[in-house]
Amino acid sequence: MKLEKKVVCVMASRVKKTESSEYHDRIAEQYESDYSSPYWQLYDEITWRNMKRFLPKKKKAVILDVGGGTGHWSRALAKLGYCVVCSDLSEKMLQVAKKKANEEGLDGCISFIQADITDMRCFKGGFFDMVIAQGDPVGFCDDPEKAIAELSRVAKKGAHVCVSIDGFFSTLSDLIAAKKHKDIDRFEKTKITEFHGSFPVHHFTPEDLRRLFKENDLEMVTIIGKPAINFDLHQDEVEKLLSDKKIFKRVLALEMKHNSEPSIVGYGRHIEAIGKKV
Questions:
Q1: Domain that holds residue 172
Q2: What is the pTM of this model?
Q3: Which residue among 2, 63, 66, 82 has its CA within the 20 to 30 Å range from the CA of 52?
Q4: pLDDT digit string (tens) for 54-107?
């Protein structure tokens, strides 16, 4: 199954290198192994359990995985029988994604297209049955508002759009703990940090996402923190704690019970919002 002829218009997207795409080109080969620790397993479980509730019921529905990178979520969706288009700005990430899909016998179930989340003119408007942007592509791009507008544009009416971004308040807490006072002042004004000194990252509050969704014809359905519960531990201690399977299972259950609680969503290290195209 190849979807390019159905979803790609005559006019191609302008695909240009960015600091983010160059960084992801460099780390593409080890990308998935870098996010395989117990903490990230918890993150993935929260993501998957939340997202599964809104998957299309139609067989062979077409899902766009924007900023899909090495295809982690594309493969999971393809295994459920969906037709998946995995797009990313990083050519190397897509190369790894194709390789992994081939290794898992999914090469005919996923199409791979290089595209910029802020300019996806290669995709027809109102085409996809679901659109996801996991792993921060909205926050990593040059213009998050354009990105949300594009995610909404390519979704069908009634389709769900799922966006995952870095939370503002958790990052603010990290800067306070690190006593980076000058950075705090700048961060409050811009809501931007540097990702390992490689490229700028935009951070969001729940209210920021609600505004962006509303402005782009997306009715907010749910918004969660992931994880929303603050461990108040050093990252190494968190990893050790979650390596115990019983504790992992208990924490996951607590997360799924409480991570949509409005009073704590904004403190999530990541925030995931799911809206419905109206």
A1: 4-277
A2: 0.94
A3: 2
A4: 999 998 899 999 999 999 999 999 999 999 999 999 999 999 999 999 999 998
pLDDT digits (tens, 9 = 90+) for 155-211: 999 999 999 999 999 999 999 999 998 899 999 999 999 998 889 999 999 999 999
Query: Do residues 203 and 171 touch, judged by C-beta distance below 8 A?
Result: yes
In the DSSP assignment, the letter for residue 199 is E
Tally the domains of the chain.
1
> CB-based contacts of 105: which residues, under 8 Å, 6+ apart?
none
**55 vs 45: CA distance, rounded Å:** 15
Contact assessment for residue 220 and residue 273, using Cβ atoms and an 8 Å cutoff: yes
List, in order, residues 6 or more apart from 190 with CB less than 8 Å away.
none
Give residue for tokens 């705090």. 184
Write the CA distances from 35 to 28, 38, 42, 162, integer angstroms.
12, 9, 11, 20
Nearest residue to 60 (alpha-carbon basis) of 46, 78, 72? 78
Rounded Cα distance between 182 and 93, Å, is 35
Q: What is the CATH number of the domain that holds 246?
A: 3.40.50.150
pLDDT at 13 exceeding the cut of 80: no
Residue 195 tokens read as 């990702």
pLDDT at 113: 96
From 175, 272, 171, 178, select the one nearest 227 (Cα to Cα). Answer: 272
Residue of higher predicted confidence among 6 and 182: 182
Residues 6+ apart with CB under 8 A from 264: 225, 228, 229, 258
